[in-house]
Design goal:
Structural class: alpha+beta
Distance between the termini: 13 Å
CATH class of the largest domain: Alpha Beta
Order of helices and strands: EEEHEEEHHEEHEEHEEEEEEEEEEHEE
Largest sheet: 15 strands, mixed
CATH superfamily of the largest domain: Metal-dependent hydrolases
Strand content: 25-35%
Number of domains: 2
Length: 390
Amino acid sequence: MIYNLKHTLSIGFVMLLLNFNDASGQENNKSKLIDSGAGVWLKGDLHVHSRHSTESSNNAVAKIINFSKAVKMDYVCITDHDNHVNGDVAHHTWTDPEFKSDTLLLLYGAEWTTTRGHGNVFSAKPYDHQRLFDVRDQRDVNIGKVKKSLNIHLSANHPSGKDNFGFSYDLVQSIEVWNSAMWTKNANAMMIWDDMLSSGRMMTGRGGSDAHHGTPTASEKPSQNTYQAAYNYIGTPTTWVYAKTRSLSAVVDALNHGRVAVSANPNSPHIAFYADVTGTGKFDMMMGDNTVSTGKPVKFQIQLMGNTIPGETYSVTVIKNGKTFNTYQIKGDAPVTTFTDVPDLKGRTYYRVTVEGKVNDYPEVPKSMALSEKMVSLSNPIYFNFDPKF
């Protein structure tokens, strides 16, 4: 079977490759990524709870929006627990007078809260969430039919933690591989993600703070959970999407197709991951893309984009089919490294990347950096020989 590129890049990324192949297998170069402007990186949070989730505190919709704008987020999805309003999200979170913004993109969504675990819904427009809530205890095949008819993106939440997703992963397009600022609790989620990828699923990995509690303002009184706002709040972690335009539909489309990276907070740099599969010196693939392997070497480039820390050395680990392929050290204003490998000619192959180093300060959530430890960013995979009709 021949597989075509899944959303091949048409943006004309150019790679100027110099001084290839040192003894470690890493390619020494001073190549620079040139973006012709066919897309834009947007950052946001895909898992936040407002006052419409009954166990949250001091977290009105307006506070979430104002904070998100203050830390320069581009989008946010307020995902209140649907069981707290008997499934009627449309007449609670979405009709809250504060649910509006001229600059921040507000996705429509909710946390699908069931006895078999939790999942988040993301949509560019209002949908009939009540229908999904009403089938929460039915067979997966029936849930799948409703989900498909609603044309929504369903994502598995905290797959290895409390209220882990207990449905078939064939129901979801993405998985929450980084839940909250505390990186260590996500190790098993990453293992589950690799299991899903190894099975042939092109499943997007994404983040979400799962923040419930804000800082009291004005007449608000602290709750027993107010302390959490200093450790975990909007943007811990931050999910970056490479979107065709600055729009709600483009954010969801990027999530659908794996054009996604995750960073420790909105001030931290994020990974851009590309491949030159045709050998022309131009990038024709990026994370989320899928093509048939020719059995020939492919050049990959990893660039750390954004606010890198001057003088900091970052450790870049390439994961191939769930196992460490190699680790490289990079530094500088625009740290970059390249490597070459031959994807399997007949079997499936995927590559993804993690970056470790010092996490950038996030003064608005001052105790979050320590919880993130050294995890700076992770990428989604580039795929070879995956069946898009899985």
